[in-house]
Amino acid sequence: MLLLLLAFEWNLDWKHLGSPASWASERYCVRKIDGAGGHSSDFGLLGVPWCKSKIPVEWSKSELLFGLYDFLPVYATRPVQQNQWGTRLDHSFGLWFLARRLQPEIIIESGVHRGHSTWILRQAMPNASIITLSPEHPRSHESEGPFYVDAKAFYFTEENFTDFASMDWDQVLGDVVRHRFRVDKAKALVFFDDHQSHLKRVQQAQQAGFKHLVFDDNYDTGSGDEYSLRQICDQLTTGGGHSCSLSSREAEVRSQRKRAWERAVDMTELCSMSGAWWGIRGEMRDNFDKIKVPISHQDHIENYKLVQSMLQIYWEVPPLASPSLSYQRAYDPARTVAPLLGEEEREVYNRLGLDKLDEWEFSEYFQMAYARLK
After folding, report:
1. Nearest Cα residue to 198 out of 304, 90, 113
2. Which fold has domain 2-16+39-230+310-373?
3. Per-domain residue ranges of the chain
4. pLDDT tens digits along 252-302
5. End-to-end C-alpha distance for the chain, whole angstroms
6. 55: confidence class by pLDDT, cuts 50, 70, 90
7. Which of 233, 229, 264, 232 is nearest to 250 (CA)?
């Protein structure tokens, strides 16, 4: 298997995974009217909005593949085997890979649910100090099935819950880690899986002194329950922006794909009656969709400028496999970065044992994003 990966690495020409450099220059990037194949050529055909990085990520596709080879046996031993409505294979690997690559001594989780992501982080970083913030303790989800409680983690849950923004991080880290002089918040990793506005969380993290952020639910424009980084960076530039015309080529392609992909977004979902497409039909959503604030297009542009002024790196974890391999029909590849394994890598896919997994393992992909702040 390692020889196969090495041979595959020899033929790689993909230095910066997810880079939009090779995409068409047409604003919507609609290269063809192609409905439901799920082939590698589908990826990004409706454009992929992209927050601009100041520097490229330090890892390559080959490093991701070798990481996947190491990760899959670990993933097979997870205590929460079916993490319904939670992190599944694509995002579990992304979180594990980023934690291993960044090597943080301190990890903060905002949003825990049944504890699956805590377990993933513990496998990646056995000796890290993990701090979890969640209104509910993992054990409160016992009726849903198995859960995981980390014996070494520090839980701020239930009556002890405090929101990320309200924590006195200097005091907490000093008390928890017990070596205040060694605590470096700039090297900590913060994982947000709490369905709060990413704009809000980026600002709060920067003010607190954190730099390495991971966002689980990075919803595409017109979908989700929070104002995501992906929505913020969907601007009238290459790979982004929309006209809302029902007679446009984009509308035609979206209509076709809506019939084939469960979470595809057509023009009636993308645009409000007044033609507002940014965010979710012209609204900035927050707190599990409980807060809906109308914003103007100029507000949306200013939010983008603010985020870009704080970002050093933005990188979306790629889907692990093309739908022609995984057979998933949930997320639409037309708005997604290229997969780690395309249909031409079927042999690698099979050798890794991915063909033995159920298709639902590949269905909860929501553009997990790594953001490094300046």
Report:
1. 304
2. Rossmann fold (3.40.50)
3. 2-16+39-230+310-373
4. 999 999 999 999 999 999 999 999 999 999 999 999 999 999 999 999 999
5. 39
6. very high
7. 264
